[in-house]
Amino acid sequence: GAGVSQSPSNKVTEKGKDVELRCDPISGHTALYWYRQSLGQGLEFLIYFQGNSAPDKSGLPSDRFSAERTGGSVSTLTIQRTQQEDSAVYLCASSPGQSLNEQFFGPGTRLTVL
Amino acid sequence: GDSVTQMEGPVTLSEEAFLTINCTYTATGYPSLFWYVQYPGEGLQLLLKATKADDKGSNKGFEATYRKETTSFHLEKGSVQVSDSAVYFCALSDQGFQKLVFGTGTRLLVSP
Q1: Half-sphere exposure of residue A108: CA atoms within 13 angstroms, side-chain side
Q2: How far B34 CA sits from the closest chain A CA (Å)?
Q3: Mind listing the pLDDT tens digit for each residue in A41-51?
Q4: Residues of chain A with C-beta less than 8 angstroms from the C-beta of B36
């Protein structure tokens, strides 16, 4: 079946511009996660959505980062006024949402801020 | 906060050699432990997991045992193949499998 998909696969933007990254989780998965993979910081948790509960935003690095999840499915990660240090691969994962469930990762979006 | 430390790479081995990638963790409570693998050009995939002390996770010939006394979860394989070349990430999660905390990753290169 279809896995987690992310778009775009690559995004090049200029410093100061806003970007939106999209994640389509596996159908029926109630939990959705965003992570960032960068050379300097490794893999970092950003934000977690579970059903209709308030998201866990504890990993967002600054108020320039925000995310929403519409209808309990598709999620969009928005970075405002991008900086060069935002350059990274942004990974989305989903899981069925109950305990002991594996997180399934998408292929990621590579963001380059010039 | 919680953290994971794993050996730096790259680890370079010949085919059929024995593999160990060390992983230790720091966590409050009783985390679940994971190894994820990222093959070239592909996304992260779960390789194996263990949810409580002394559990052994295994998959594709890889094994790791949850050692609470040494806070470790070392990855081993008795005979590596060229197709095992990838980046391996150790990770932990607590409180019902919410966010994962990853190590920095270890690149494995296996030559014929």
Answers
A1: 19
A2: 10
A3: 789 999 999 88
A4: 105
